[in-house]
Structures are given as C-alpha cells and as structure tokens.
C-alpha cells in the first residue's frame, strides 16, 4: 500500500451552487492561512464552452495534514477531492492564471486571503529575489557538504518555505545535478 500523502498545503475547487452559504466563515474558523481565487466564471473548456463557475481554495497549515483530514474539511464545504500543493508560489499564481496567458486573467485584487497570508508577497517575488534564494541554497549546499537531494529538501521543508518553494518550482534539476556532481567529485571525497 502506498504511503499516504501528508503535506502542509492543500487546494481544491469550490462551486457556488453546492457550497454552503457560510463557506468562507467555515474556512475562517480553521484559523489557518488561506487564499481563495476570484470567482472563475470566464474559464473555457477545450470546446470553447464556459466552464461551471468555481473558486480555487488553498489551505496552508503549520504542520502536515493527511488527505483524510483535508477531505473532512472539503466534505463540510461540499467540495470535490482535495489535492496536495506541489509548489505554493505556482499554485497561488494559478489563482489568477498569472502564468497562463491563454486563459482569462483574473484581477489579483480579487484574491481573498485570511489567517495572515500575504498574497502580494508571493505574487510579487521578483527574479532578483529568486536568484538570491538560489545563491543562498547553493551556498548552503557547499557549506554543509550536502550530498543527497533529500537532505536539502528536508532542510528547506522544515526551515525555509521560500527555499522549498524555489526547489519545487522548477529548480529541482539544477540542484540535483549540483549535489550529484559534488557527491562524485574526487577532491571532495579524499581522492585526487
């Protein structure tokens, strides 16, 4: 049997027609960080037909939660199956289709947030900010003689959400290659 997914961040779709009237209050009462997309009422399917209006809801917990724990929440909201968030930055950006120019562009001002979540901080992370994070991660690898990718991801997951997001949002191949080449470098392993 596969190990159950446990992660801090989850997301799901919520339809106005089936959501309870007090759905936002239910989410607020969780006392966690969250972000809710503008109402997606201009999305089209492959046939050019307007999709059923919906919100995308991201829930961010301080500790990991199991699928079943999140399913209890989504069931209380009459929402379909929740999914683990692979990268928080990319998922938040999807709330308004920021990286999908072929889809309708929803205004970022209409994203609803709670629990202290700052959507502007995520949406406005500059290229320079990302490059600094990448340099910091690279320095950490060198200074701590990291030889396995899981060591880096475990550290980032437990200690630095920005690092974890950068690792999950498209830099895995680069850092994995750096770590692998360091692992096999003779000068680092007492050889030649």
Report on the structure:
With 192 residues, the chain is α+β, with helices and mostly antiparallel strands. It folds into two domains: 6-123, 3-Layer(aba) Sandwich (Replication Protein E1, Chain: A); 127-188, no CATH class. It is 40% helix and 16% strand. It has helices spanning 23-28, 67-76, 88-94, 119-123, 127-143, 149-159, 161-168, 172-184, and strands spanning 6-14, 33-36, 55-66, 83-84, 112-114. A five-stranded antiparallel β-sheet has the order 4-1-3-2-5. Helix 6 packs across helix 7.
Strand segment count: 5
Structural class estimated from helices and strands: alpha+beta
Please state roughly what percent of the residues sit in beta strands, choosing from under 5%, 5-15%, 15-25%, 25-35%, 35-45% or over 45%: 15-25%
The helix content, as a percent range, equals 40-55%
Which strand order spans the largest sheet, edge to edge or round the barrel?
4-1-3-2-5
Task: List low-pLDDT spans.
Answer: none
Largest sheet, if any? Answer: 5 strands, antiparallel
Rough shape?
elongated
Number of helices: 8
Mean pLDDT: 89
- Helix and strand run: EHEEHEHEHHHHH
